[in-house]
Amino acid sequence: MNAEEIVQRARDAGVRLVTFAYCDNSGIIRGKATHISGLERRLNSGIGVTTAMQAMGDMDRLQVVDGMGPVGEFRMVPDLDTFTMLPYAPTRAFVIADMMTMDRKPWPACPRDFLKRMLAQGEGMGLTFQAAMEPEWYLARRDGDVFVPMDESLDNSTLGATYSQEVIDAMVQALEAQGLQIEQYHTEVGHGQQELSITHAGALRAADNHLIYRETVRNVAWQHGWLASFAPKPFPDQAGNGCHIHLSAWDANGERNLFYDANNDLELSGLAYHFIGGIMEHLPGLTLLTSPSMNSYRRISPGSWSTAYICYGPDNREAAVRIPSRFWGSEMASTNLEFRPADSSSNPYIALGGIIAAGLDGVRRQLAPPEGLLIDTDPARLNVDDLAARGIKRLPATLLEAIQELEADRTLTDAMGPLLANSYLTVRRSDWELFSQHDADFEIRHHFYKY
Ligand code: GLU
Ligand code: MG
After folding, report:
1. What is the pTM (predicted TM-score) of this model?
2. Which ligand is nearest to the CA of 190?
3. Which of 34, 138, 210, 390 is least surrounded, with the fewest CB atoms within 10 Å of its CB?
4. pLDDT in the model for residue 88
């Protein structure tokens, strides 16, 4: 749809407010809405936002970052392909924006542009990427100072699906109405925990879909009297909320899955091994891009399927990269890598861009993952000597460790570019400084609400 058609469609549908949105360096979705009367003009010239917004931590505490002070603006310029009417709010619409400079160039701190740059590098190497996010989240109610889960149901329990049926069905309808295709639904291990997954798409679209998804789930839950929380660990004694990221590399026409090779033991191509090799090498710093919040490190721990070790393996849910078993009859098409130390406090553009940057580095350098990292058991069951013999190391155990690892990873920070990397690291560090001075209740309360 072009701008004129969008305006017409919005007018015909009675839309009054159209939100231009982006996802920031803290994984928070932010935006401003234009009234329908100014839509046509703003679809062209965007909406101005102070550059300081990319220096804002997830508690809205402004950090000092060169180029992000009180002077200067970026423009949120909408990508018209992402325009969607909101089925749960009939007089509103939503569109995802790129951050542009005043001379109409991508602003170097724009996360969506980072992903586009990584995809362009992939295209230069003959690769196009398909991705899918697999988000988990809780339904809960606020009771005074605490949050109480919707139910006490069990993993995959049909009883849990009974309690949540009304609100989940409303979400399914709202997601479908916005063009998202549903893959599966089930209740997860945690009390009140849900998993409703979306079919894969081109990597940029998959990241856009995740924003639309988070918005839809939060809004529909709210309308049904529930809070949906995507926080990585909303309840310390319950399972964490992962957002595992599935990725596959295809040829330029999108016809052949280049990660697939029927003749290999794991049915993976040489390209897939190089890609895994890059991920394994960069995982320490990459973790900050996929698990960026203080609360992320309460989730990442052995024995909780969130993964805690740098290793990979077929259908291994305790490995950082799982090679999922294939669908019978569509082995080539269903081959993908599942990156597990990721959660929805991450910015999906930065998370996906980071994984692709790491993987492409492995492809360029023809890296092979060290032999010992391929594992068909739970790494937590190996003793220290066995882990050392295999070369299996822990993922960063704290936000601070992850920050230090990213600071030391020039491949990833160079891929992000100085403005995005500096601002990202600065806001992550400010969160560490704040939350490390407070207790778990404080951390959980604030993350519960914001994600
Ligand atoms: N909840 C787990 C996590 O934190 C994942 C459980 C699963 O494998 O679906 O990643
Ligand atoms: Mg799950």
Report:
1. 0.97
2. 1
3. 390
4. 97
